[in-house]
Amino acid sequence: MSELHVYLPNLEHNYRVIRSRLHSKTDLIAVVKAGAYGNAAIPIARRLEELGVDALAVAYSEEGILLRKSGIKKPILVFYPQLEGLDTLITHQLEPCLYSTTLLEKFGSLAKKNNEKNYPVHIKYNTGLNRIGFAPSQVSWVLNQLNEPFLDLKSVYSHLAASEASKDDSLSKLQLKTFLDLRKHHLELTPKSPKFHLLNSSGVFNYPEYQFDAVRVGIALHGYANQPHWDQELKVVSELKSKICQIHTVKKGAYVGYDHGWKTTRESLIAVLPVGHADGIGRHFGHHKGRVFVRGKWAPIVGNICMDLLMIDVTETPCKEGDEVSFFGTSHPASDFAERGNTISYELLTGLGPRIKRIVHKTI
Fold first, then answer.
1. Is residue 74 flagged as an active site residue?
2. How many CA atoms lie within 13 A of 35 on its CB side?
3. Which entry of 7, 15, 33, 99 is annotated as an active-site residue?
4. One of 113, 177, 252, 258 is an active-site residue; which one?
5. How far apart are CA 164 and CA 169, in angstroms?
């Protein structure tokens, strides 16, 4: 079957590259949501904890619970806690990022009911991404709600909408100004000293002067910083491999795949791989858009990708059944493969299904 090989030494390299770009007092929050971007959340989180990351972050409480049960001790931020199951955050000592009036009020009541003292919380503001978060105008209300002994404001943060865009991007400049004003108001209105953070992976490379007290890094730990010249400093952490399960000859003018997806223009050798759109290689990679590496040569994906299988044209690629095939890896990154399907590395990596076996390598 297909395998995703995860190389922890490359993860360590990327961690050190990112650390080298930070001030000594800047915290590094490693984002390991969605199975550590589709790779292997638990071994990656453990290695990051060993390397000295200051905190970890996930999207939902279930992901944080999984890390806690695996023995992770570092603080774990939960970006999008839901109203249902807030008590599990306290049970597993997870730190909620509160982003709405309803959520803040309900979690505050829960902490009070449980007689919590200075339970760590984080406040998310919407400064222009317009996805989730308090409005900057709600600063006074937020701080009034936090003026209780059972909650401790650990950090205040926001998220840039286009951190990889050119630094003269007017909307990014507006977001930066909004966050600076927000930070100023917070410091003026409360004696507490929370940490402030704004930058994600691309932001660390593009706006190092705005790293404040912490940064949140996810995809860059896996080798992708959303600009080719930044990616050159990093190493790709994972490689997706499969094996040819059948090769057969198709006559000139015959069709390959569902809906007669591709018509041969010559007698062709077609190799079949045991991976399909149920595994995360979507139909948008079919019809010669996607390609794979076989025996040192590229072979195009032909016709429509099936649920469990896909076909490649190996007419000009000497190979045999059982030969290994690589979709992306250290020499041909996922960002390149994703671009051919008009998507991004995030979607490709996080969409890789559970049938793909994860194999973690501690050495290379």
1. no
2. 16
3. 33
4. 258
5. 10
Alpha helices in 190-344 (DSSP H): 201-206, 228-231, 334-340
pLDDT per residue as tens, the chain (364 positions): 899 999 999 999 999 999 999 999 999 999 999 999 999 999 999 999 999 999 999 999 999 999 999 999 999 999 999 999 999 999 999 999 999 999 999 999 999 999 999 999 999 999 999 999 999 999 999 999 998 899 999 999 999 999 999 888 899 999 999 999 999 999 998 888 899 999 999 999 999 999 999 999 999 999 999 999 999 999 999 999 999 999 999 999 999 999 999 999 999 999 999 999 999 999 999 999 999 999 999 999 999 999 999 999 999 999 999 999 999 999 999 999 999 999 999 999 999 999 999 999 999 8
Identify whether residues 303 and 219 lie together within a single domain: no
Please confirm, yes or no, whether 297 is among the known catalytic residues. Answer: no
Are residues 49 and 89 located together in one domain of the fold? yes
Q: 43: domain range?
A: 7-226
Same domain, 50 and 134: yes
Q: Are residues 132 and 250 in the same domain?
A: no
Query: Looking at the domain assignment, is residue 315 inside a domain?
Result: yes
Q: Of 166, 196, 226, at which residue does a domain stop?
A: 226
CATH code for position 271: 2.40.37.10
- Report the predicted TM-score, pTM, of the whole model to 2 decimal places: 0.95
Distance CA 185, CA 179 (A): 10
Of the three residues 203, 226, 249, the one that is the final residue of a domain is 226
Beta strands 291-294 and 324-328: pairing type? antiparallel
